[in-house]
Amino acid sequence: MVEEELRAAGWTPGRVVDVRPWTAPLEARGLTAHAAARAFLAEFGGTRFVFSGPGAECARTAFRLDPSVCEGEEEVFLEWGGELGLSLFPIGECADGLGFLAIDENGSVLSLGGGFAVRYGPVPQVFDRLLLGYRAEVVGEA
């Protein structure tokens, strides 16, 4: 089911897109597009997942992997990164903009919003959790 959802959103094995239109504006505003962010966005950037409903452990919610929706919110990533001791780069949003998605320098995807930071994990775990509705690990509270 995960691969089917990924393909329906526009992903294909070996997919590579130019990440500069996403990374350059955010880097100009003080964020660092580390190797993990560039690799993730090259493969999955620009995909959108529109669904809702029950999941295995929690409700599934729509998300999109488009860092441009985070422009103007750079402070969120800098503050949470400082709090967690991580270099966070925006990769998109979830829950219709109620949370931002970020990736750390180790390739782990987090959601930041509602006063919490939660970790979904690296690929492929992140997609198992988001697409199938498994709970993420709370790693910080504001």
Give a verbal description of the structure.
The chain has 142 residues and is of the alpha+beta class. It has a single domain (2-52, 60-141), classed as SMI1/KNR4-like (3-Layer(aba) Sandwich), CATH 3.40.1580. It is built from 5 helices and 7 strands, in the order αααββαββββαβ. The protein has a 7-stranded antiparallel beta sheet. A hairpin with a 4-residue loop joins strand 4 (99-104) and strand 5. The protein is globular. The mean pLDDT is 96.
Layout of strands and helices, then pairs:
Elements: H1 2-8, H2 20-28, H3 35-44, E1 48-49, E2 63-64, H4 74-84, E3 88-94, E4 99-104, E5 109-113, E6 116-121, H5 125-132, E7 137-141
Antiparallel strand pairs: 1-2, 2-3, 3-4, 4-5, 5-6, 6-7
Q: Any idea of the CATH topology?
A: SMI1/KNR4-like
State the distance separating the first and last CA atoms. Answer: 34 Å
Number of strands: 7
| Helix coverage percent | 25-40%
Q: Cα-atom Rg, whole angstroms?
A: 14 Å
Question: Low-confidence stretches at least 5 residues in length (pLDDT < 50)?
Answer: none
Strand order of the largest sheet: 1-2-3-4-5-6-7
**SS element count, helices:** 5
